[in-house]
Design a protein that fits this description.
CATH class: Alpha Beta
Helix content: 40-55%
Number of strands: 4
Largest sheet: 4 strands, parallel
Structural class: alpha/beta
CATH superfamily: Vaccinia Virus protein VP39
Radius of gyration: 14 Å
Length: 133
Protein backbone atom coordinates (compact mmCIF):
# COMPACT_ATOMS: atom_id res chain seq x y z
CA UNK A 1 0.00 0.00 0.00
CA UNK A 2 1.35 3.41 -0.96
CA UNK A 3 1.67 6.27 1.48
CA UNK A 4 -1.22 8.71 1.62
CA UNK A 5 -0.46 11.29 -1.04
CA UNK A 6 0.04 14.20 1.37
CA UNK A 7 2.54 12.24 3.51
CA UNK A 8 4.43 11.13 0.43
CA UNK A 9 4.61 14.68 -0.91
CA UNK A 10 5.78 15.98 2.48
CA UNK A 11 8.51 13.35 2.60
CA UNK A 12 9.60 14.14 -0.94
CA UNK A 13 9.70 17.88 -0.18
CA UNK A 14 11.78 17.23 2.95
CA UNK A 15 14.35 15.21 0.97
CA UNK A 16 14.46 17.86 -1.75
CA UNK A 17 14.99 20.57 0.88
CA UNK A 18 17.74 18.62 2.65
CA UNK A 19 19.46 17.14 -0.40
CA UNK A 20 22.48 19.45 -0.32
CA UNK A 21 23.02 18.82 3.40
CA UNK A 22 22.78 15.04 2.88
CA UNK A 23 25.14 15.17 -0.09
CA UNK A 24 27.71 17.17 1.89
CA UNK A 25 27.51 14.76 4.84
CA UNK A 26 27.65 11.59 2.75
CA UNK A 27 29.84 12.78 -0.14
CA UNK A 28 31.81 9.67 -1.09
CA UNK A 29 30.96 7.90 2.14
CA UNK A 30 31.12 8.68 5.83
CA UNK A 31 32.64 6.31 8.39
CA UNK A 32 29.35 4.46 8.90
CA UNK A 33 29.10 3.75 5.18
CA UNK A 34 32.76 2.89 4.65
CA UNK A 35 33.20 0.68 7.71
CA UNK A 36 29.78 -0.95 8.16
CA UNK A 37 27.56 -0.64 5.11
CA UNK A 38 29.81 -0.90 2.07
CA UNK A 39 31.70 -4.06 3.10
CA UNK A 40 28.40 -5.84 3.77
CA UNK A 41 26.80 -4.65 0.51
CA UNK A 42 29.87 -5.58 -1.51
CA UNK A 43 30.08 -9.02 0.11
CA UNK A 44 26.38 -9.66 -0.42
CA UNK A 45 26.15 -8.51 -4.04
CA UNK A 46 29.67 -9.29 -5.30
CA UNK A 47 29.41 -6.67 -8.06
CA UNK A 48 31.03 -7.74 -11.32
CA UNK A 49 31.16 -6.52 -14.89
CA UNK A 50 27.90 -7.07 -16.70
CA UNK A 51 25.79 -7.49 -13.58
CA UNK A 52 22.57 -5.43 -13.76
CA UNK A 53 21.88 -3.68 -10.46
CA UNK A 54 19.00 -1.50 -9.30
CA UNK A 55 19.75 1.04 -6.57
CA UNK A 56 16.47 1.86 -4.82
CA UNK A 57 16.28 5.25 -3.06
CA UNK A 58 19.81 6.00 -4.24
CA UNK A 59 20.16 9.42 -2.62
CA UNK A 60 23.34 11.07 -3.88
CA UNK A 61 24.31 7.90 -5.76
CA UNK A 62 27.12 6.81 -3.46
CA UNK A 63 26.33 3.09 -3.66
CA UNK A 64 25.50 3.40 -7.35
CA UNK A 65 28.95 4.81 -8.04
CA UNK A 66 30.67 2.06 -6.07
CA UNK A 67 28.80 -0.63 -7.99
CA UNK A 68 29.49 1.03 -11.35
CA UNK A 69 33.20 1.27 -10.49
CA UNK A 70 33.15 -2.49 -9.95
CA UNK A 71 31.84 -2.88 -13.51
CA UNK A 72 28.13 -3.39 -12.88
CA UNK A 73 25.49 -1.79 -15.07
CA UNK A 74 23.53 0.40 -12.66
CA UNK A 75 20.06 1.89 -12.80
CA UNK A 76 19.40 4.07 -9.78
CA UNK A 77 16.36 5.98 -8.64
CA UNK A 78 15.12 8.27 -5.95
CA UNK A 79 11.90 10.24 -5.66
CA UNK A 80 13.82 13.41 -4.82
CA UNK A 81 14.69 15.32 -7.98
CA UNK A 82 17.28 17.29 -5.98
CA UNK A 83 19.02 14.08 -4.90
CA UNK A 84 19.09 12.77 -8.46
CA UNK A 85 20.60 16.05 -9.67
CA UNK A 86 23.36 15.79 -7.05
CA UNK A 87 23.94 12.12 -7.90
CA UNK A 88 24.36 13.00 -11.57
CA UNK A 89 26.89 15.71 -10.73
CA UNK A 90 29.01 13.23 -8.73
CA UNK A 91 28.75 10.37 -11.22
CA UNK A 92 30.01 9.25 -14.58
CA UNK A 93 27.38 9.27 -17.28
CA UNK A 94 27.18 5.48 -17.39
CA UNK A 95 24.72 5.30 -14.46
CA UNK A 96 21.06 5.50 -15.48
CA UNK A 97 19.54 7.84 -12.86
CA UNK A 98 15.76 8.23 -12.73
CA UNK A 99 13.22 10.04 -10.60
CA UNK A 100 10.83 7.33 -9.41
CA UNK A 101 8.60 7.06 -6.36
CA UNK A 102 9.24 3.67 -4.71
CA UNK A 103 5.70 3.70 -3.32
CA UNK A 104 4.28 3.61 -6.85
CA UNK A 105 3.72 0.01 -7.88
CA UNK A 106 3.15 1.06 -11.50
CA UNK A 107 6.45 2.97 -11.62
CA UNK A 108 8.31 -0.02 -10.20
CA UNK A 109 6.72 -2.38 -12.70
CA UNK A 110 7.72 -0.01 -15.52
CA UNK A 111 11.34 -0.80 -14.66
CA UNK A 112 10.70 -4.29 -16.00
CA UNK A 113 10.06 -7.65 -14.42
CA UNK A 114 13.33 -9.50 -13.82
CA UNK A 115 15.28 -6.70 -15.52
CA UNK A 116 17.92 -6.70 -12.76
CA UNK A 117 20.17 -9.30 -11.20
CA UNK A 118 20.02 -7.64 -7.76
CA UNK A 119 18.58 -4.64 -5.97
CA UNK A 120 20.29 -2.36 -3.49
CA UNK A 121 17.61 -1.21 -1.06
CA UNK A 122 19.92 -0.32 1.87
CA UNK A 123 19.23 3.39 1.63
CA UNK A 124 15.51 2.72 1.66
CA UNK A 125 15.46 1.90 5.37
CA UNK A 126 13.90 4.79 7.20
CA UNK A 127 12.72 6.55 4.03
CA UNK A 128 9.41 4.78 3.66
CA UNK A 129 6.90 4.33 6.41
CA UNK A 130 5.06 1.49 4.71
CA UNK A 131 5.91 -1.22 2.26
CA UNK A 132 5.15 -0.51 -1.39
CA UNK A 133 3.02 -3.16 -3.17
Amino acid sequence: MALPENENIQSQQAWDANAKFWDQRMAEGNAFFKILLWPAIEKLLLPVAGQRLLDVACGNGLTSRRMAQAGATVTAFDFSAAMIELAKKRSASDIDYRIIDATSRAALLDLGMEAFDSEIPAALVGRLRRKAV
